[in-house]
Amino acid sequence: MADHLTFEGRKQRARFRAWHRGTREADYMIGGFFDRYHVGWGEDDLRWFEALLEEDDVDVMAWALKTQPVPLRFAGPLIEAMQLLDYVDIPR
Questions:
Q1: Which helix (H) or strand (E) holds 62?
Q2: What count of other Cβ atoms lies within 10 Å of the Cβ of residue 39?
Q3: Which of 1, 32, 34, 46 has its CB surrounded by the most CB atoms within 10 Å?
Q4: Contacts by 73-76, CB closer than 8 A, 24 or more apart
Q5: How many CB atoms lie within 10 A of CB 63?
Q6: Who's near 8: CB < 8 A, 6+ residues apart?
Q7: pTM of the entire structure?
Q8: Number of helices (H) and strands (E), helices first, in the chain?
Q9: In whole angstroms, what is the distance from residue 48 CA to residue 38 CA?
Q10: How many CB atoms lie within 10 A of CB 85?
Q11: Is 36 exposed, middle or buried (0-12, 13-18, 19+ CB in 10 A)?
């Protein structure tokens, strides 16, 4: 079934997965990143994000916080945008 999703369907699935990571911190970081940047994404960008969603939250957060080196497969402008953390809007 997943192979039959449209590009927009894949984006919807990615948004759900980004906002349902298991911890509030990961939801804000990964979900907030998706909400801020997904509009202009093409196929390669979405494929990158889908692969990122397969990684453990602690690793993704460490890469975004620059406490661990980013693996080469994730290096580039998208992880650099994630590392800015300016998209994280924490409700109070």
A1: helix 57-64
A2: 7
A3: 34
A4: 74/48, 76/48
A5: 20
A6: none
A7: 0.91
A8: 6, 0
A9: 11
A10: 14
A11: middle
**C-alpha triplet 47, 73, 29: angle, nearest 5°:** 65
From CA 48, how far away is CA 53, in angstroms rounded?
9
| pLDDT tens, residue by residue, 1-42 | 556 899 999 999 999 999 999 999 999 999 999 999 999 999
Location of structure tokens 């809007």 = 89
Q: For residue 2, what pLDDT is reported? A: 54
- Of how many residues is the chain composed? 92
Backbone dihedral region for residue 23 (phi beyond 0: left; psi -120 to 50: alpha; all else: beta): beta
DSSP state of 88: -
Q: Looking at beta carbons, which pairs linking 76-83 to residues 24 or more positions away fall under 8 Å?
A: 76/48, 78/37, 78/45, 78/48, 78/49, 81/33, 81/37, 82/29, 82/33
